[in-house]
Amino acid sequence: MNRIVVGAHYGLRDWLAQRVTAVVMALFTVILVGGMIGGATSSLDAWRGFIAQPVIRFCAFLFILSLFYHVWIGIRDIWMDYIKPTGLRLTLHVLTLLALIGQAGWAVQILWRL
Amino acid sequence: MAETTKTRPKFLDLAVIRLPLPGFVSILHRVSGAGLFLILPFLLCLLQLSLDSRPEAGAAFLALTGNVFVKLLLLGLCWAYLHHFCAGIRFLLLDVHVGIEIDAARRSAKAVMVVSLLLTTFVAAKIFGGI
């Protein structure tokens, strides 16, 4: 089939990123549930000790990065589907990006300040 | 080309249309994702309090999560996460052409609803029953 590809070509990349970030988050969710079964959430001290482990913190960092990239793609898709006026849609894109970048910084700060 | 553009009847009355279960799972995937996005600042606040080693932060965390309305909110968010998780795995499997036949797709949609609600029930027992 001879197809003419048009557009900005970010569709496939984002489609793939949405799925890769989903898998990263799913794996961390399994690690977290495993930790909970092992008593990581039995007390606040146990919880802090659990997250302070280098391997867990490394995975948690990847989870946070994946989360914010995943949220960006998902929310952008919602705006693209429902908001037809271009100006309003682009404004919402920018506001979403700013909110997510700010919160990503906040999340990383929470994680690394331990 | 002109012959193929027939005036087919369109029936898109959202109030009357009956959404099949896979469609229901799909729109709930979107709704749960949007809800989790909107509540993210609150969840980050909770994470911050829970990881702050100062005693007053820990006390604030326990007071906040001990509130019955916060518990209900967190239970709803747990359902949203679990549904998003289960429906997401279903979509990943559909992406690699697992279960794309209509019967299998209907069954997996039902499984997503049942499993996510069962797990939410378990979380509810944990939050409210202290199990």
- Helix segment tally of chain A: 4
Which class of secondary structure composition applies to the elements of chain B? mainly alpha
- Total DSSP helices of chain B: 4
* Architecture (CATH level 2) name of chain B: Up-down Bundle
Radius of gyration of chain B: 20 Å
Order of helices and strands of chain B: HHHH
Beta strand count of chain A: 0
CATH overall fold name of chain A: 3 helical TM bundles of succinate and fumarate reductases
Task: Bin the strand percentage of chain B.
Answer: under 5%
Largest sheet of chain A: none
- CATH topology tier name of chain B: 3 helical TM bundles of succinate and fumarate reductases
Q: How would you explain this protein's 3D organization?
A:
The complex is a heterodimer of chains A (114) and B (131). By secondary structure, chain A is an all-alpha fold. Helices cover 81% and strands 0% of the residues of chain A. Chain A has a single domain (11-112), classed as Fumarate reductase/succinate dehydrogenase, transmembrane subunit (3 helical TM bundles of succinate and fumarate reductases, Up-down Bundle), CATH 1.20.1300. The longest helix of chain A has 29 residues, at 54-82. The mean pLDDT of chain A is 94. Chain B is built from 4 helices and no strands. Chain B has helices at 21-51, 55-66, 68-95, 102-129. In chain B, helix 1 (21-51) packs antiparallel against helix 2 (55-66) and helix 1 (21-51) packs across helix 3 (68-95). Chain B starts with 20 loop residues before the first helix and ends with a helix. The chains are: A mainly alpha (114), B mainly alpha (131). Chains A and B meet through helix 1, helix 2, helix 3 and helix 4 of A and helix 1, helix 2 and helix 3 of B.
